[in-house]
Amino acid sequence: MSFESDAREAGFSRRVTLAITGASGVQYGLRLLQCLVQLEVQVLLMVSRAAQVVIATETDLKLPGAPEAMERFLSEHLDARSGQIKVYGREQWMAPVASGSGAPGAMVVCPCSTGTLSAIACGASNNLIERAADVALKERRQLLLVPREAPYSEIHLEHMLKLTRMGAVVVPASPGFYQRPQSVEAMVDFIVARLLSQLGFEQTLLPRWGEALL
Ligand SMILES: Cc1cc2nc3c(=O)[nH]c(=O)nc-3n(C[C@H](O)[C@H](O)[C@H](O)COP(=O)(O)O)c2cc1C
Fold it and tell me: What class of enzyme is it (predicted)?
């Protein structure tokens, strides 16, 4: 498909869309971004306004708000190659992710706020993250959603069921404890490993079930 061959022509292994929205657990999204960069993936990134508030609350990162400045900051912070991280703003409708002809084969919303979950389930497309997810659904491309809320309301559960039936995969931010994680980072990696596996990467963050468990 052209969006993947474009990425390979530019020297990247693949191209993936990543949206970080304003649920708690932005560490999952930031770690996934770091892993994708290390895997030579070109990442088309969107960070919602609420996610920027959560990043400032939950991490020490001083993330600039403007897309160009955010792109420069993250590229330097994660030692990404030139052009590897592309950041798009909330109304940048000419971005590749806004159309089936330009969007990558996979999109991850990590973490996914219940607000964005609702907008995706209803096809609202009121900002670029919602539009990109709408494109992924209409084109039958891979869409991974990482919601975090507790408890879930019937509305949240209905949206997750509806989106699952449409082909999206819900990967809740619910790390397991059977590997006896010794750090927050290990718990974050538990979820990121599952996302990388879903995306088809050989992940090395965690042993697979049945291999070296305890
Ligand atoms: C510190 C903080 C933590 C939040 N945690 C959650 C959460 O865990 N789950 C959630 O769905 N919303 C959470 N919210 C609320 C969302 O950020 C809010 O509903 C926002 O409108 C979502 O916008 P977005 O989907 O465009 O990112 C949190 C907000 C803040 C500031």
Answer: transferase
